[in-house]
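Cont'd.
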Amino acid sequence: MKRAIALSLGLLLAGCASTGGNSIASAPVAPGKPATPATALQYLYGSAEAEIAVRAVNVRIADYVEERVKQRPQDSVILAPGARIDAPRFEPCSDKPFAAVFDADETLIWNLGATRYMAERGIAFDPKIWDSWEKTGAGAARAMPGTAEMVNALRAVGVTVVANSNRLAANAAGSEATLRAAGLGDFKHGETLFLAGDDAGGSSKDGRRAAIASKYCVIAMAGDQLGDFSQQFNEKTLSPEARIALATSPAASALWNQGWFLFPNPVYGPWDRLGWDDLFPSDTHWEPK
Amino acid sequence: MKRAIALSLGLLLAGCASTGGNSIASAPVAPGKPATPATALQYLYGSAEAEIAVRAVNVRIADYVEERVKQRPQDSVILAPGARIDAPRFEPCSDKPFAAVFDADETLIWNLGATRYMAERGIAFDPKIWDSWEKTGAGAARAMPGTAEMVNALRAVGVTVVANSNRLAANAAGSEATLRAAGLGDFKHGETLFLAGDDAGGSSKDGRRAAIASKYCVIAMAGDQLGDFSQQFNEKTLSPEARIALATSPAASALWNQGWFLFPNPVYGPWDRLGWDDLFPSDTHWEPK
């Protein structure tokens, strides 16, 4: 059996520097099928608790968008080129049609097929398997809880639903088929589906966001990682503490649940290199007495 | 080094039947300190993404409560004794003072001290260590992001903040000290702190909820597990699918984010016995082509 390749799903999907390896499977990785799925998998894909959390985000997006289309906003929720999160300027809406922009993986769909395949084999992440998944996964991914209803509600009030994913442009047909088979309707590459390889930005979604905002008044953005909102969150010089500080700065805080919407995903993400000292500061160290 | 005892944190804190064992540490449990914390730990305790999600729930609670105190609600959000979630009746408010009821662990505080101690040693959960933690953990737990601000906002509008925890009544002094040291102010056992052993209900919080609702008009309830809202969610006859169906039924859906508030916790929970087939239905099985 193939051992885990030292790349994380976070690397591919978020474009973050990463050499961590326990994104999908439990660590330490053991050959053979673990008796129990890792807790992150159990929680996200199996629990009523996560189902409620995901549904709540979808309900909030639909409520917010339905409210916003009644007043024509002046600006998109997409940062203007060069604007920083802590001193934000946004793309103007003018008279452009409305859109909402979503990451795809673990934002519109749960990648159950590839996740099970890798996790049962103790594979943290394998880009070759993932490439095959992008091409052939249609039918084995699922719309997340409440997502089909949310997408339908947005379209019903005239909002175009756009996906901006780090799946590869070369696999566009497979990703279109996957979203359609999940019950989320038609996404068309270059029109409502933007992918890595569409421009020279690599895994940064900033350029694709700018392209979308040039055509649409974007009233909502959603993702499971901060790179789904601004590439500034993925800058390599940003320490974990500084990243949290930036994400909870007044300017960013004003956007969460008010134009920017974050789905829970404890299974993989750009945080997958965090170590013991990042999670447990020394003043929380404790021993039984 | 002591090996993991086959009990999960979910069992103690949620009172669910459970023999799963990978609640805190990664599975398979290995002796010695894993190189990397499990993804669930990295996400919850280290990521900006989880920080945003937790803060969003706290902001929502404060906004909701501030709005509710302006109109005196007719009913508490606590189910009347014997009432079922799918046909709910609620405790009347009459002229009782306002309160909000919170679970403690991973709802008001993150248990960093005990979690680090067990996870670094590959211990899934050890009730003796946890008992010592309840007694002596003050200072090594942290208020969750935005929780001190939320608690202060509630108290500022005259709402009593009550904790209803499955920590033990015998360890009340330690838990009072832990909440105080985390910056959450004073909780007093029997008045604003309700614990396992306060009544004959064991780990069911229903009896304690009824006791609280007899004294207070409870306008908000929050937790990280469904047992923090009704023991009906913990009935052993409830399959995972039926539990999700109950939690997303129209009556329950009307309460989420409208009186009942759920915090993300992928580290431990009553879902920790879910197996591969629970997460990945056969029609999502897939293999690389």
